[in-house]
Design brief:
The protein is an alpha/beta fold. Helices cover 43% and strands 11% of the residues. It has a 6-stranded mixed β-sheet with strand order 1-6-5-9-2-10. A two-stranded antiparallel sheet has the order 3-4. It has a two-stranded antiparallel ribbon with strand order 7-8. Bound molecules: zinc ion.
Length: 305
C-alpha cells in the first residue's frame, strides 16, 4: 500500500512545485488513518501565504476543538503544493456515505484533504490554480491507486452544509480523469478577460458586487499568480499586459472611467504590495502608476456597436 509520505518526488515529476513543511512525513493527529480518497476544500480566506499554511499545519483552531494539521496538502493560488502532514488531519469532520467505498462516519480516517488557498464566493478560479488542482488530485490518485471517482468535494461529503470548493465537482472529476489518462487540456480555462465577458453576458450583479469588482478580482488573482513567480525584471510589463486585457474586455461597454479606476486601484495595488511585498520589487506607487497609465486611455475605446 503506497504511503502519502513518499509522494513528493512523484508530484515534482508531474511538474508541480512542491514545498515540504518540516516534519510533514510523520505529522499526524491521534487516531486511525486509512485513506481511500481525495477531498477538495478551499480555505475561504484571502491569504496566499506560507505563513497561513504554517498556521493550518502547526496551530489550527484548538479553541474550537480542531487543532492542526487541518489538511495533508495545501495549494496556493500560484500553484505551489505544500505538503503539511502525511498522517491524519482535521479537515473532513463527519461524512455521509458515497458510492460503495466511502462509509458514513469519520471522514478524517478515510480521506486525504487538500486546502486550496481561495476565498470562495465570487473569486474566480484562475487557470494557474485550477489546473494545478486537477494535476495534484490526478497525481495523488495515481500514486495511491485510487480512481477519479474517489475525488470528492467537501460540499459533497459534509453533513453541516459546507460549500467548498466552489467549482463543479462533476467537471472537476472529469478533468481529473482526463489528467490521469494524460489528456487534460489546460487551455480550456477562462482568462480574466473571458471571465469578464461571461459575467457581462450573464448579466446583472452577483452577491452585491458590481461587474467591475468581479473583473478586478479575476485580474488580481491572475496577477498574483504571475507576480509571485516573477522576481526579476518585467513585472510592470506583465501587470500592464493583464490590465490591457481589462481595457480590451471593456471596450464598447459604457464604463465610468473614474469609477473603474477608483475600484481597480485599491483592489489591484494593495494585495500585490501587501501580500507579495519585496518579492516583486515594486513600490505601491509604481504599481498604481502602471494601472493608471492603462486606465488613462480607456476613453479611447471604440463606441458601442
Ligand atoms: Zn472544507
Amino acid at each position: 500500500m503506497p504511503s502519502l509520505a513518499n509522494i513528493a518526488p512523484t508530484l515534482r515529476a508531474a511538474g508541480l512545485t512542491v514545498v515540504e513543511l518540516p516534519g510533514w512525513r510523520t505529522r499526524t493527529r491521534p487516531g486511525s488513518h486509512a485513506p481511500k480518497g481525495f477531498l477538495a476544500h478551499h480555505t475561504a480566506g484571502s491569504s496566499d501565504s506560507l505563513s497561513y499554511v504554517e498556521w493550518m499545519t502547526y496551530v489550527g483552531r484548538p479553541s474550537e476543538g480542531i487543532p492542526g494539521p487541518l489538511c495533508q496538502i495545501a495549494l496556493s493560488r500560484t500553484g505551489i503544493v505544500y505538503l503539511c502532514a502525511a498522517g491524519r488531519a482535521n479537515h473532513a469532520g463527519k461524512t455521509r456515505a458515497i458510492g460503495n467505498w466511502l462509509q458514513a462516519g469519520d471522514g478524517n480516517t478515510q480521506l486525504i484533504g487538500c486546502e486550496a488557498l481561495h476565498r470562495g464566493g465570487t473569486e474566480p478560479w484562475t487557470p494557474t490554480h485550477y489546473n494545478a488542482y486537477v494535476k495534484l488530485a490526478a497525481t495523488v490518485n495515481k500514486f495511491m491507486g485510487w480512481p477519479a471517482s474517489h475525488t470528492l468535494g467537501h460540499k459533497e461529503t459534509s453533513l453541516t452544509g459546507k460549500v467548498d470548493p466552489t467549482f463543479n465537482m462533476n467537471t472537476f472529476r472529469a478533468n481529473v480523469a482526463s489528467a490521469m489518462a494524460g489528456s487534460f487540456e489546460e487551455e480550456d480555462m477562462a482568462t480574466p478577460a473571458e471571465l469578464w465577458t461571461q459575467y457581462r453576458i450573464g448579466g446583472g450583479e452577483a452577491d452585491g458586487q458590481t461587474p467591475i469588482t468581479t473583473l478586478a478580482q479575476a485580474s488580481i488573482y491572475s496577477n498574483h499568480a504571475r507576480l509571485a513567480l516573477i522576481t526579476q525584471a518585467g513585472q510592470i510589463t506583465k501587470l500592464l499586459a493583464d490590465t490591457a486585457a481589462i481595457k480590451a474586455a471593456v471596450a464598447g461597454v459604457d464604463v465610468d472611467e473614474a469609477a473603474l479606476a477608483a475600484q481597480l486601484v485599491p483592489l489591484l495595488v494593495e494585495p500585490i504590495v501587501t501580500e507579495l511585498g519585496d518579492a516583486v520589487g515594486l513600490t505601491e506607487e509604481e504599481v498604481e502608476a502602471a494601472i493608471r497609465r492603462v486606465l488613462g486611455s480607456l476613453d479611447n475605446a471604440p463606441a458601442p456597436s
